[in-house]
Amino acid sequence: MTSPILTARKLNKRYGRVVAMEDCDFDLLPGEILAVIGDNGAGKSTLIKALSGALRPDSGEIRLDGKLVHFSSPIQAREHGIETVYQTLALSPALTIADNIFMGREIRKPGIMGSLFRQLDKKKMQDFARNKLSELGLMTIQNIAQTVETLSGGQRQGVAVARAAAFGTNVVILDEPTAALGVKESRKVLDLIKTVKSKGIPIILISHNMPHVFEVADRIHVHRLGKRLCVIDPKDYTMSDAVALMTGAMAPPDQEVAA
Amino acid sequence: MTDAPGSVDTRLPEQETVAEFDSSHKSTFHRLLGFLQATPSAIPLFVLITAIIVFGILNGHRFFSPFALTLILQQVAIVGIVAVAQSLVILTAGIDLSVGAIAVMSSVIMGKFTFDLGMPPELAVLCGLATGLFFGTANGLLVAYVKLPPFIVTLGMWQIVLAANFLYSGSVVIRSEEIAQRAPILQFFGRTIEVGGAIFTYGVILLLLLVLLMSYILSQTAWGRHVYAVGDDPDAAELSGVKVKATLVSVYAIGGLICAFAGWALIGRLGSVSPQAGQLANIESVTAVVIGGISLFGGRGSVAGTLFGALIVGVFTLGLRLLGADVQWTYLLIGALIIFAVTIDQTIRKVSL
After folding, report:
1. Which of A168, B68, B340, B348 is spaced 20 to 30 A from A101 at the CA atom?
2. pLDDT at position B36, please?
3. Does position A34 have pLDDT exceeding 70, yes or no?
4. In chain B, what are the domain boundaries?
5. What's the alpha-carbon Rg for chain A, to the nearest Å?
6. Is the pLDDT of residue B214 over 70?
7. Cβ within 8 Å, pair A135-B8
């Protein structure tokens, strides 16, 4: 059996008297798309924030490739090759596509222009951005220097996913990537997710949309009451089963969840 | 990362891609707005050139001479320098009401430390610059870490610095002759270069160099991109890995330092050190920035626009004065320009292209 790339064991997080995570476990296998589903308030965003470095769990451990990691900020998680596409996308609308892709990790020119005058290598960044977008099938870009605000919702999602896929060497986390999109654009984003997977990058997909989850996920992590209830194979269960598990209407299968 | 570029094309035929960056269907109006969005300093430049031509025609050679045109530069130099600092702050969606007070305080420190404490003037200048840096940093820390609104922080700082300035100086002016005799370096930016009737003070040259330097920094360095990103959407910037707080502090700190340079240049312009000077620099700098096309909502605009904005004010002031018009006409027209500029900004920001 392949060993998981990202694991969490016995994560706990409390906000005052509210328990957001209680002895929560998590496993992501290499190359898979793992969907995380759960009712509102089940604590899935707390789990995802812990994995992406946006919050520190009170206790428990997270391992990347078997090595213990502690993230105190999303930037640290990024340095470990874990990229997150937030629901808000975290793009700066007035800046260009290339600016956005390289925000916070700009490339400077070689030589004295870069070291002393701190000049950015815009051409290199634009070429890289263009390559990444075309690799993901987000081609037909005439102008990589156009601002993000000139793009449609789906296109913006595409830029955010491209940024994550470009730098997410270990894991890409997608938080509700289709929630704000129409049918046609959702379709394209789902295709994009499959393309990213085909590049061998494992993906954690948080979504409320059962058809989307069942279409792309290899396994489904069902989150309930602050912990993992079970992991199911979408081929063995129906969407209504998944919803029943999520809401507690159905008892979880008796299984060994750990991969 | 494993690359499998071959698999992409089969999966996503080109006509069905997520990102279709097609602009062929855009109307002329949209293309114009797109151009203005990309080049926000275009309108102020257009207004500036038009104003120069119109006043040139109306006033003839009295206005359209190297002397008069460079006189405008001299008259806007101080406000222009302060406006560069203001630009940085407004790009982060903030505002700095304390710029003028910091400039004056810095100039008073330079003068008092030289004449009262008997410091070497060079050292007093450094102390003055450090004063600007100090108050700017204080603004930045309060905005970034205590999370107070920039308007409130700098409104308070304005009062504090101005009062400290009057308390410390006793509102006493240090006379020009005295400075020229004992500490000419304080008047450094008042020195001039003459090129065929055109007179450039060192203060004007400082302004122009500062605009060039800041334009480079804002467009060509990571820090500059971060300033825009922070102004555009601080949460997005933070999640993208920008150190938002550090960027904010540095912006206010550099703003304070630039104001201190403006204070130094102010001594050159006046000849004397006057605690009463520069009272309107905060409002005038905001005017220059806004007319220059920088969005008050942050993330949009350029310092070149700010320079044009300051020059527009200068051209209107001199042009109307030469026409013999009441000075109130200048204020009236500048007021109209401010509203016009913000209207344009709103239009550009709201239209999704």
Report:
1. B348
2. 75
3. yes
4. 40-56+80-342
5. 19
6. yes
7. yes
**Mutate: best of A92, A123, A183, partner B, most B CBs <10 A:** A92
Question: What per-residue confidence (pLDDT) applies to A1?
Answer: 56
- Inter-chain touch A138–B233, beta carbons under 8 Å: no
Q: What is the mean pLDDT of residues B178-199?
A: 93
Q: How far is B7 from chain A (nearest CA, A)?
A: 8
In this structure, which topology does domain A1-81+171-179+202-259 adopt according to CATH? Rossmann fold (3.40.50)
d(CA B122, CA B182): 12
Tell me how far apart the alpha carbons of residues A33 and A204 are, in angstroms, rounded to a whole number.
Answer: 6
What would the pLDDT profile of A47-92 be if each residue is shown by its tens digit? 999 999 888 999 999 999 999 999 988 888 999 999 999 888 899 9
What's the CATH class of domain B40-56+80-342? Answer: mainly alpha
- Selecting from B18, B221, B239 the residue whose C-beta is nearest the C-beta of A119 gives B221
Q: Where in chain A is the domain with CATH 3.40.50.300?
A: 1-81+171-179+202-259
Q: Residue B183 is encoded by which pair of tokens? A: 């500490």
Of A232, A215, A214, A212, residue with least CA distance to A223:
A232
Give the span between the Cα atoms of A60 and A20, in whole angstroms. Answer: 13
Strands across the sheet containing A82-85: A82-85, A171-175, A203-206, A33-38, A219-224, A227-232
Number of Cβ within 10 Å of residue A50's Cβ equals 26
Please name the helix (run of DSSP H) or strand (run of DSSP E) that holds residue A203, with its range, or none. strand A203-206
| CA of B216 vs chain A CAs: smallest distance (Å) | 9
- List of chain B residues whose C-beta atoms are within 8 Å of the C-beta of residue A121: none
Instruction: Give the C-alpha separation, B262 to B256, whole Å.
Output: 10
Structure tokens at A192: 């994009």
